[in-house]
Amino acid sequence: MPPDVMWTPWRKEFIMAPRSPGCFLCEKARSPAEQDPANLVLHRGQRAYILLNLYPYTNGHLLIAPYEHTAELEELEPETADEIMRLTQRGVAALKKFSQPGGFNIGLNLGRAAGAGVPEHVHIHVVPRWSGDVNFMATLGDTRLIPESLDQTYTRLLPYFHRL
Ligand SMILES: [Zn+2]
Fold it and tell me: 128 CA to middle of ligand 1, Å?
């Protein structure tokens, strides 16, 4: 094995999974692990992974996505669906320790009509919430005021995934 080839068990799932060039969830999933910080990837499972949303509603807004490129939630293999839920639990646990939110909004937008930004690749949103943040955001209108950069959030949040 050449020295620059790393043991990356998740790569097998990538090769097997249907892909779509131009889909950012596929591209980040298939990027080398050393680019995970630049891609804001926090954790890689066997069939799914966790990343920070580039357009967060609140600080720490996560996306959980399968490596498989599909728009159809009901067509995910049971093992993939199981892992997506386990990673959602993991994200919630990490965020609770990271920033003590008062609650979470967790869900999927399936289809453009439901507001999905990337309708062709299913993903779960995990949005930490604090009492009063709705009023805060309503006051600001379209401006999403995030108290730190995504890179800062990534760097501070990453250790909480390693400790779980
Ligand atoms: Zn995709």
Answer: 25
